Amino acid sequence: MSPEFLILLPLAFVTGIINAAVGGGGLIQVPGLYAILTTASPAQLMGTDKLASICGHATSVHQYATRIALPWRLVLLTAASAFIGALAGVSVMSIVPTSWMKPVVVVILAVMLVYTWFRPQFGTQDAHKEITRGDLYKGLALGLAIGFYDGFIGPGTGSFLLFLFVRCFHFDFLRASACAKVVNFGTNLAALAFLVPAGMVFYHFAIPMGIAGILGSLVGTRLAMRGGNHWIRRLFLILAITLLAKLAWESFRAWM
């Protein structure tokens, strides 16, 4: 086993846990890939990350689907539109610098964080309301926007999805987290549809990392089911603060 695996496999395992529970595992895995595979291009690192991550997402989708009743019509429509949005995002990424969008994302993330922080009951109860045609339209728009973000910038997609499923459809955090996994699977699949044919995946790293991610996903799903909404809410706030700090620092450095 090469020395790189001694770091990348544990990172992939932890990423699988976080992605399964709340999303945002890319905050760990992506910097790890950049630090270890120093000669690789950003596109190669993205392709390796997406292939490793999609294995964990597929596992968590299966785990949640056998335990929670999901609104499949809404979720699959949102995932399909996210697939299209992510394809557009990946295409634009090679033309427009992502640094242009990061200050906007920082503001949106800050609003999202403050909103959740000062509403302790946010996401603790599921409204169990019937999905309407208006909800399907909202899901379509949500998928396109989040898919584009994932293809264009990337980190924190799962956290944004989690917040929006709670805010827009009045799900609790547990159900929202399960729905977010399906949509995140669609965005990762779209990125791979662009990156795999271009030869931008290191399979000798991505496949073992994917297996580690599957094992982490099994652990993360069980933790989420046992911990419930309050545990997921706390983890969501921690990840949102971390992502906000990361993007704010990157935006600040870009202006210097």
Automatic annotation (TrEMBL):
Protein family: Belongs to the 4-toluene sulfonate uptake permease (TSUP) (TC 2.A.102) family.
Compartment(s) of residence: Cell membrane
Name of the molecule in the record: Probable membrane transporter protein
Leader sequence segment: none
Species classification: Bacteria, Pseudomonadati, Pseudomonadota, Betaproteobacteria, Rhodocyclales
UniProt main location, coarse: membrane
Pfam families named among the record's database cross-references: TauE
Transmembrane residue ranges: 74-96, 103-120, 140-166, 178-196, 231-249
Keyword terms of this UniProt record: Cell membrane, Membrane, Transmembrane, Transmembrane helix, Transport
Domain of life from the UniProt record: Bacteria
Keyword Hydrolase: no
InterPro entries for this protein: TM_pro_TauE-like, TSUP
Native source organism of the sequence: Uliginosibacterium sediminicola
Membrane topology term: Multi-pass membrane protein
